[in-house]
Design brief:
Layout (H helix, E strand, L loop, with lengths): L19 H11 L3 E3 L6 E3 L1 H20 L3 E2 L5 E3 H4 L3 H7 L4 E6 L2 E9 L4 H11 L8 E10 L13 E11 L2 H22 L5 E4 L11 E8 L5 E11 L1 H5 L3 E3 L5 E3 L1 E8 L1 H10 L16 E5 L5 H4 L1 H13 L4 E3 L6 H10 L4 E5 L1 H6 L1 E6 L5 E5 L3 H26 L1 E3 L3 H7 L6 E6 L3 H11 L2 E4 L20 E6 L3
Parallel strand pairs: 3-7, 15-16, 15-17, 20-21
Antiparallel strand pairs: 1-2, 4-6, 5-6, 7-8, 8-14, 9-10, 10-11, 11-14, 12-13, 17-18, 18-19, 21-23, 22-23
Helix pairs in contact: 2-6
Length: 483
Amino acid sequence: MAKQDKTDFVTEITPRSQDFSRWYLDVVRRAQLADYSPVKGCMVIRPYGYAMWELLQQALDRRIKATGHLNAYFPLFIPNSLLTKEAEHVEGFSPQVAYVTHAGGEELEEKLVVRPTSEAIIGTMYANWVQSWRDLPILINQWANVVRWEKKTYPFLRTTEFLWQEGHTAHETEAEAEAETRMILDMYAETCESVLAMPVVKGRKTDSEKFAGALRTYSIEALMGDGRALQAGTSHNLGQNFAKAFDITFQARDKSVQHVWGTSWGVTTRLIGGLIMTHGDDSGLVLPPAIAPYQIVIVPIGRENWRETVLPRAKELQQELMAADLRVTIDERDERPGWKFAEWELRGVPLRLEIGPKDIEKSAVMIARRDTREKQSIPMAGLATALRDLLNTVQRTMLERARQFREDHTTRVTDYAAFKDAMEGRPGFIIAPWCGNADCEAQIKTDTQATIRNMPLDGAAPAEPCIRCHAPAMAEAWFAKSY
């Protein structure tokens, strides 16, 4: 990549309305979230982007542990014979699997799979660990990287290697496994909404869209700023499929030998991509305070001697705010204030604190919100409390705005002609009755490029017939074009 002149750093962003895809790539690169790696399809996550992932990881890890799950780690390499034990699972992943055939200068007796997901290796270990119903449930999560050899990649959204967490649990009964699957789905939804300010739709995937080898798959779906949907997380009830493939059995309370009931679930670094596309604007990132590496940037303003007159007070304020557990940085660079303003807008910092000689005289600072661009003067006395309250307001406002956008871009239809008309362009979510037939689902996708993102949990069958074939409908499905 050719080096860029720094004066171009904050100005060369393609407008969203002109080319949303180009806008997204511009923001990822110019906000220094990630860069392309020499390995095709892989990305280098830069410190600013990784800090966002760390904050999300910490928030989710607390929630996972609070539900009784424990973190562990399983190998990156999986013997091919283990993956082939579960035929449906292998068939689903085979186009994306990477293999190691040589190591240490020799050809391996058995090729190794580079982890695309860990059901096979974890199932093998659970078979060794489970003997009795007293050993259940097993509630394990791991933070790891996985490799899926994607043909078309996009930073954060779809890369050959990505970071994620994957939970794998084993239970005594089907009811326990189903409860686990639903609980995790709720946890994912709450995390997306409270941390990322990204509203999601919870529901069940169709059989054609479910995870390979699963009994049932549930997902959370978010709506991006261009009207496309993004699958933001999945939770799978695996039934006993993997338990039977890997012989995970236990002696039940009645002394019979039974297979465990399993689940798996995960979210990935694609949530960072979803965050960008949910909130960003033509100036760059707009970050919710909960996920912002810096919640506040202090920009000292003054004449030539600002380092002597303004900077010391700015640093005192930084220490006061950091002592209140706020994430704060100071921009001390010798650049014009306007240039600094534009750069920190690009990087999405929720609040900009401007301080100059007159502000010091008045014992007040000027605060600019990134989400609304509103500015207000706030007294230095009690500043930490005032800014924390304002950050909470920003977080809440961003979620409300994203919800309103989704509501404005969600349409209900019962007529197929109206459905196809509504699907022109990237309209958002379209809710319509569907019969449950896979052939009908496939034809809708062929006609409109839209897929069923999910179906509401425990929803009653609609009175209207299927949108396309007019057979009795089994669910109101949420359709959209997606990433």
